[in-house]
Design brief:
Blueprint: H1 27-35, H2 39-58, H3 62-82
Helix pairs in contact: 2-3
């Protein structure tokens, strides 16, 4: 990998330039940051699914309501623990 700042050739697995010590940002790093689930989105979706599950339970749709509530609780927990 060639450094954009100083032109030094580094190993392909390097995270920093060995000469100027600038950090390399790969395309895969940028894509990975976009894919990560935001804690706020997880909490909002979790709350929405819990409300939907409660509505389904009140209408006697037990099987789907249970799955919806469990998924909502899991998303809410992920959001709370990630923030």
């Amino acid at each position: 990998m060639k450094c954009n700042k100083c032109g030094t050739v580094n190993k392909s697995t390097a995270t920093h330039c060995k000469k100027c010590h600038i950090r390399f940002i790969r395309q895969s790093d940028k894509i990975a940051r976009k894919v990560i689930l935001s804690p706020r989105i997880a909490m909002v979706c979790g709350c929405f699914l819990l409300i939907l599950g409660a509505i389904l339970l009140s209408n006697d749709i037990d099987a789907f309501a249970t799955v919806t509530c469990i998924t909502g609780a899991a998303l809410l927990a992920i959001g709370v623990l990630s923030s």
